[in-house]
């Protein structure tokens, strides 16, 4: 049974359809990626999952059951524009939020201290949000979302605006939560995070689902059309190989676009014929490319 | 219920600890303490004045009149009414009497009064001479009264006794009684003066408290919305629990403030030098009306919730703090009406306006208090008015909850009433 399941969910705002028949499943211990350009319907979908707004059609099931107030205990949410009281002490507001989610005060306090230690900032316990940098405010927002040990965690653009060190820290934490069995619905437009974290994804474009499934499978569906070649010297005649549509000279080698997979072997032959080959790779399409193709195509 | 307790506690703790709350309360207490001690301070300064004045209560002036002038004897024999100190008059033979000149030089007398001839047609040519050419107010009013009576005695001669003459000079008091419709003289519902004071104090206290806490609620909700913590809150606890938790939490804040202010008033009254002030103003604590205070508290609670819920509803619709001022304007207006109608009617609490206003839910809390305190009101009127108020408060509780549920998720421009109504239909509370 899935921790979270959306069936043909539709949401309309007046004449405008915000989300059109989205279906998805998040199992226990899975990070599910929800991708889409701005205004594609990600936030609306998440708000429906949170029970903030009701779907006009379709069903949302949590562990097989429909929405009920018990869920407030087991759900955690990090909104895109993270909200915390700017002028209230961190210890006060995070324990307050945890208490609202059904934790006792002492439990909440213990959990908060654990997380502050985990992020190596125990001194923030008595600070106010407005005293922290933006990245640290975001960490506090993340703690507020996970302090009550939720089973279903909803992260809306969790990593935006963080420096690389903190992104790594948060990524590790998210993975750890996943390994502990938390089901995570994760939205972003940073594809490299999705590729690293998610097993399944849905790409939304202007309210519609355009791509859905396991990342590996999705990638298989797209042709491998790029070859990376690295050689110490120049390789001539690459443009004239049958099936090569473009050649880009890079700092240390070439990036070639091919129209058929057989062309890759011919490129390798050509390169070996002229000298040493340091690196040869038939690249699988990146999610970025898939995203641009999927969203771009539907825009045409 | 448990969550609501958490929300109430959090709201209360955070509000009471803010600097603005502490400073406002401190300023009010300070102003009150100063205000309540002003009568004493005036007394102290006055006392200093008389003590430092050369002549003081025992002012001495000279009197120059022909020997055998009847007015001079009468003037010396004049007894002022109670409370006014008698001025001593020393007789001198003439204005160029060296003794008089010496007394003036030594400031033993402030000046001297010269009487002309006295006859049965009254006094003539009364002149006051002094070195500085000034006739002091208290001296003047004493002489005025004295000369008036002397004049009357001279004219009346032996036909009237001195008692009759002094009775003539007593002003006539005008009594005032209201006629009822049946033409009988109605017993004026006499309210002890302390009732006016209580009503006055409660009116100001409640109005201030309701306006301040109401603004607090609206500002709090709007800032939660604009800082987007609302999205987290609303997924953690039901909007209903949140709204009422907030309203009750702030109610406790307001109550705390009122208790502090009341304690400050009580402490000031207890100060030894203020002990006589109450009686000076003809107030008597034994007339202190517990019933009136109880009504006051009930009306305060109902009035508070009615206004607070409206503030909460408006706060939930606005997304930015900058827009809040404009949005709460109508409620402020209503609040001002509720305050100024009773305040300006405190001297005439039985006008039609007051009667009508005491049944209209928004103005009724304070106006009803006025009528109970210093007007005439039947018990059934109180019950009907309270019932209307109670029903309205519950209705607004429901409506505010609906608006709140809808409003907190609406961002961007302030929605129109039509948009709110449409969106409201989408939610069960």
TrEMBL record, chain A:
The yes or no answer to whether the keyword Repressor is present is: no
Q: Which family does it belong to?
A: Belongs to the ABC transporter superfamily.
Task: Name the InterPro entries on file.
Answer: AAA+_ATPase, ABC_transporter-like_ATP-bd, ABC_transporter-like_CS, ABC_transporter_ATP-binding, DrrA1/2-like_C, P-loop_NTPase
Q: Does the keyword Nucleotide-binding apply?
A: yes
State the SMART domains in the record: AAA
Q: Which residues form the ABC transporter domain?
A: 4-231
User: Where, if anywhere, are coiled coils annotated?
Assistant: none
Keywords, sorted A to Z: ATP-binding, Nucleotide-binding, Transport
Indicate what this protein is called per its UniProt record: ATP-binding cassette domain-containing protein
GO terms of molecular function: ATP binding; ATP hydrolysis activity
> What is the originating organism of this protein?
Paenibacillus agri
In terms of SUPFAM superfamilies, this protein maps to:
P-loop containing nucleoside triphosphate hydrolases (SSF52540)
UniProtKB/TrEMBL annotation, chain B:
Question: Chief subcellular site?
Answer: membrane
What residues form the membrane-spanning segments? 21-42, 197-222, 243-267, 287-315, 327-348, 368-401
Name of this chain's protein: ABC transporter permease
Q: Which GO terms describe its molecular function?
A: ABC-type transporter activity
Compartments (UniProt record): Cell membrane
One GO cellular component this record assigns the protein to is:
plasma membrane
Keywords, A to Z, come to: Cell membrane, Membrane, Transmembrane, Transmembrane helix
What InterPro entries has UniProt attached to this entry? ABC-2_transporter_component, ABC2_TM
The record gives the membrane topology as: Multi-pass membrane protein
* Species of provenance: Paenibacillus agri
Q: ABC-2 type transporter transmembrane domain location, by residue?
A: 19-401
């Amino acid at each position: 049974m899935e921790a979270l399941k959306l069936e043909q969910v539709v949401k309309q705002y007046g004449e405008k359809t915000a989300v059109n028949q989205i279906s998805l499943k998040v199992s226990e211990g899975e990070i599910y990626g929800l991708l889409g350009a701005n205004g594609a319907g990600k936030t609306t979908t998440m708000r429906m999952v949170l029970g903030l707004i009701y779907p006009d059609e379709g069903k949302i099931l949590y562990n097989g059951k429909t929405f009920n107030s018990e869920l407030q205990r087991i759900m955690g949410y990090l909104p895109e524009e993270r909200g915390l009281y700017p002028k209230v002490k961190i210890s006060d507001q995070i324990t307050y939020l945890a208490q609202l989610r059904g934790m006792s005060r002492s439990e909440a306090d213990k959990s908060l201290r654990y997380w502050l230690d985990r992020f190596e900032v125990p001194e923030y316990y008595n600070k106010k949000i407005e005293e922290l940098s933006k990245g640290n405010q975001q960490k506090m927002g993340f703690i507020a979302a996970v302090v009550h040990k939720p089973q279903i965690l909803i992260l809306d653009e969790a990593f935006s605006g963080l420096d690389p060190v903190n992104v790594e820290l948060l990524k590790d934490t998210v993975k750890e939560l996943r390994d502990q069995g938390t089901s995570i619905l994760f939205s972003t437009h940073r594809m490299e995070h999705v590729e690293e974290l998610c097993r399944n994804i849905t790409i939304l474009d202007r309210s519609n689902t355009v791509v859905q499934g396991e990342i590996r499978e999705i990638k298989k569906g797209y042709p491998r059309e790029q070859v990376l070649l690295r050689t110490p010297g120049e390789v001539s005649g690459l443009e004239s190989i049958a099936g090569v549509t473009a050649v880009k000279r890079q700092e240390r080698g070439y990036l070639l676009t091919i129209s058929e997979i057989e062309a890759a072997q011919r490129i390798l032959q050509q390169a070996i014929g002229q000298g040493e080959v340091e690196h040869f790779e038939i690249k699988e399409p990146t999610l970025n490319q898939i995203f641009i193709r999927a969203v771009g195509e539907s825009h045409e | 219920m448990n969550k609501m307790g958490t929300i109430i506690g959090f709201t209360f703790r955070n509000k009471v600890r803010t600097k603005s709350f502490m400073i406002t309360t401190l300023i009010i207490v300070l102003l009150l303490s100063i205000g309540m001690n002003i009568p004493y301070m005036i007394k102290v300064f006055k006392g200093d004045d008389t003590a430092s004045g050369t002549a003081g209560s025992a002012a001495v002036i000279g009197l120059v009149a022909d020997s055998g002038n009847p007015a001079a004897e009468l003037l010396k024999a004049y007894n002022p009414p109670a409370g006014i100190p008698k001025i001593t008059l020393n007789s001198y033979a003439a204005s160029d009497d060296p003794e008089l000149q010496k007394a003036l030089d030594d400031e033993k007398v402030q000046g001297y009064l010269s009487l002309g001839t006295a006859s049965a047609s009254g006094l003539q040519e009364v002149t006051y001479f002094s070195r500085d050419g000034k006739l002091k107010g208290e001296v003047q009013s004493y002489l005025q009264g004295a000369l008036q009576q002397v004049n009357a005695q001279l004219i009346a001669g032996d036909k009237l006794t001195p008692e009759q003459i002094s009775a003539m000079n007593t002003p006539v008091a005008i009594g005032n009684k209201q006629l009822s419709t049946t033409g009988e003289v109605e017993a004026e519902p006499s309210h002890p003066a302390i009732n006016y004071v209580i009503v006055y104090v409660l009116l100001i206290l409640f109005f201030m408290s309701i306006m301040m806490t109401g603004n607090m609620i609206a500002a709090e909700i709007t800032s939660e919305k604009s800082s987007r913590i609302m999205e987290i809150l609303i997924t953690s606890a039901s909007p209903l629990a949140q709204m009422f938790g907030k309203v009750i939490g702030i109610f406790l804040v307001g109550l705390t403030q009122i208790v502090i202010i009341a304690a400050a008033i009580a402490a000031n009254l207890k100060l030894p030098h203020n002990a006589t002030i109450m009686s000076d103003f003809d107030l008597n604590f034994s007339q202190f009306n517990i019933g009136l205070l109880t009504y006051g508290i009930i009306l305060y609670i109902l009035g508070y919730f009615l206004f607070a819920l409206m503030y909460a509803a408006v706060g939930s619709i606005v997304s930015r703090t900058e827009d809040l001022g404009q949005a709460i304007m109508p409620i402020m207006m209503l609040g001002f009406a509720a305050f100024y109608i009773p305040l300006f009617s405190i001297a005439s609490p039985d006008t039609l306006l007051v009667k009508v206003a005491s049944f209209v839910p928004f103005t009724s809390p304070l106006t009803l208090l006025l009528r109970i305190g210093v007007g005439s009101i039947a018990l059934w009127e109180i019950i009907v008015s309270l019932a209307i108020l109670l029903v309205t408060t519950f209705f607004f509780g429901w409506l505010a909850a609906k608006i709140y549920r809808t409003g907190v998720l609406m961002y961007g421009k302030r929605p129109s009433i039509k948009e709110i109504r449409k969106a409201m239909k989408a939610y069960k509370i």
